[in-house]
Model the fold of this input.
Amino acid sequence: MDTTDPKVFRVAGLVEPADVPRLCEELTELLGGGGGDGGSGFVVCDIGAVRRPDLATVDALARLRLTARRLGHRMAVRGAGPELRALLELVGLADQLLTPPPNPPPAAPGDRTAGTSASRPGTT
Done:
Protein backbone atom coordinates (compact mmCIF):
# COMPACT_ATOMS: atom_id res chain seq x y z
CA MET A 1 0.00 0.00 0.00
CA ASP A 2 1.17 3.53 -0.74
CA THR A 3 2.05 5.29 2.51
CA THR A 4 3.12 8.60 0.99
CA ASP A 5 0.98 11.71 0.93
CA PRO A 6 -1.53 11.76 -1.92
CA LYS A 7 -0.87 13.86 -4.98
CA VAL A 8 -3.13 16.90 -5.31
CA PHE A 9 -4.67 17.97 -8.61
CA ARG A 10 -6.27 21.44 -8.52
CA VAL A 11 -9.16 22.54 -10.71
CA ALA A 12 -10.17 26.21 -10.60
CA GLY A 13 -12.42 28.68 -12.35
CA LEU A 14 -15.32 27.87 -14.60
CA VAL A 15 -15.20 24.31 -15.98
CA GLU A 16 -16.55 23.94 -19.50
CA PRO A 17 -16.95 20.77 -21.60
CA ALA A 18 -14.02 21.80 -23.81
CA ASP A 19 -11.74 21.78 -20.73
CA VAL A 20 -12.16 18.06 -20.03
CA PRO A 21 -9.49 16.68 -22.42
CA ARG A 22 -6.93 19.23 -21.15
CA LEU A 23 -7.72 18.43 -17.52
CA CYS A 24 -7.35 14.70 -18.17
CA GLU A 25 -4.00 15.30 -19.89
CA GLU A 26 -2.79 17.41 -16.95
CA LEU A 27 -3.84 14.70 -14.50
CA THR A 28 -2.03 12.10 -16.60
CA GLU A 29 1.13 14.22 -16.46
CA LEU A 30 0.82 14.66 -12.68
CA LEU A 31 0.44 10.92 -12.17
CA GLY A 32 3.41 10.09 -14.33
CA GLY A 33 1.49 8.76 -17.31
CA GLY A 34 1.31 5.18 -16.11
CA GLY A 35 0.03 3.00 -13.33
CA GLY A 36 2.43 0.25 -12.54
CA ASP A 37 1.66 0.37 -8.82
CA GLY A 38 -1.35 -1.93 -8.87
CA GLY A 39 -3.84 0.78 -7.95
CA SER A 40 -2.15 1.74 -4.71
CA GLY A 41 -1.69 5.42 -5.62
CA PHE A 42 -4.09 8.07 -4.42
CA VAL A 43 -4.88 11.50 -5.83
CA VAL A 44 -6.99 14.28 -4.34
CA CYS A 45 -8.82 16.53 -6.78
CA ASP A 46 -9.11 19.93 -5.08
CA ILE A 47 -12.05 21.82 -6.55
CA GLY A 48 -12.45 24.47 -3.88
CA ALA A 49 -11.75 27.25 -6.42
CA VAL A 50 -14.27 26.07 -9.04
CA ARG A 51 -16.84 28.76 -9.83
CA ARG A 52 -20.48 27.96 -10.60
CA PRO A 53 -20.29 24.16 -10.68
CA ASP A 54 -22.70 22.56 -13.12
CA LEU A 55 -23.11 19.31 -15.03
CA ALA A 56 -19.97 20.10 -17.05
CA THR A 57 -18.08 20.09 -13.75
CA VAL A 58 -19.65 16.77 -12.80
CA ASP A 59 -18.69 15.32 -16.20
CA ALA A 60 -15.13 16.57 -15.79
CA LEU A 61 -14.83 15.01 -12.33
CA ALA A 62 -16.20 11.68 -13.55
CA ARG A 63 -13.74 11.63 -16.45
CA LEU A 64 -10.86 12.63 -14.17
CA ARG A 65 -11.75 9.74 -11.87
CA LEU A 66 -11.73 7.35 -14.84
CA THR A 67 -8.37 8.72 -15.96
CA ALA A 68 -6.92 8.20 -12.49
CA ARG A 69 -8.26 4.63 -12.38
CA ARG A 70 -6.76 3.83 -15.78
CA LEU A 71 -3.42 4.98 -14.41
CA GLY A 72 -3.72 2.80 -11.31
CA HIS A 73 -4.78 5.48 -8.83
CA ARG A 74 -7.81 6.11 -6.67
CA MET A 75 -9.28 9.60 -6.57
CA ALA A 76 -11.38 11.63 -4.16
CA VAL A 77 -12.67 15.18 -4.44
CA ARG A 78 -11.91 17.85 -1.86
CA GLY A 79 -13.50 21.28 -1.49
CA ALA A 80 -16.91 20.60 -3.02
CA GLY A 81 -19.46 23.19 -2.02
CA PRO A 82 -23.13 22.48 -1.33
CA GLU A 83 -24.20 23.09 -4.95
CA LEU A 84 -21.74 20.59 -6.36
CA ARG A 85 -22.47 18.09 -3.59
CA ALA A 86 -26.16 18.28 -4.50
CA LEU A 87 -25.38 17.72 -8.19
CA LEU A 88 -23.16 14.73 -7.40
CA GLU A 89 -25.93 13.26 -5.23
CA LEU A 90 -28.46 13.83 -8.00
CA VAL A 91 -26.43 11.95 -10.62
CA GLY A 92 -25.34 9.21 -8.19
CA LEU A 93 -21.62 10.02 -8.06
CA ALA A 94 -21.34 11.42 -4.54
CA ASP A 95 -20.23 8.10 -3.02
CA GLN A 96 -17.58 7.58 -5.69
CA LEU A 97 -16.15 11.10 -5.66
CA LEU A 98 -16.68 12.67 -2.25
CA THR A 99 -15.50 9.89 0.01
CA PRO A 100 -11.95 8.63 -0.10
CA PRO A 101 -12.01 4.99 -1.16
CA PRO A 102 -11.31 2.52 1.63
CA ASN A 103 -7.95 0.84 1.84
CA PRO A 104 -7.90 -2.39 -0.14
CA PRO A 105 -8.25 -5.52 1.98
CA PRO A 106 -5.03 -7.38 2.70
CA ALA A 107 -4.29 -10.34 0.48
CA ALA A 108 -5.57 -13.66 1.77
CA PRO A 109 -2.77 -15.94 2.99
CA GLY A 110 -2.14 -19.04 0.92
CA ASP A 111 -5.22 -20.59 -0.58
CA ARG A 112 -7.62 -19.53 2.15
CA THR A 113 -10.53 -17.20 1.59
CA ALA A 114 -10.27 -13.87 3.39
CA GLY A 115 -12.52 -13.64 6.44
CA THR A 116 -12.90 -17.32 7.16
CA SER A 117 -10.96 -19.76 9.29
CA ALA A 118 -12.60 -22.89 7.87
CA SER A 119 -10.78 -25.04 5.38
CA ARG A 120 -12.05 -25.30 1.87
CA PRO A 121 -14.36 -28.21 1.05
CA GLY A 122 -12.43 -31.23 -0.19
CA THR A 123 -9.23 -30.36 1.71
CA THR A 124 -7.94 -31.67 4.97
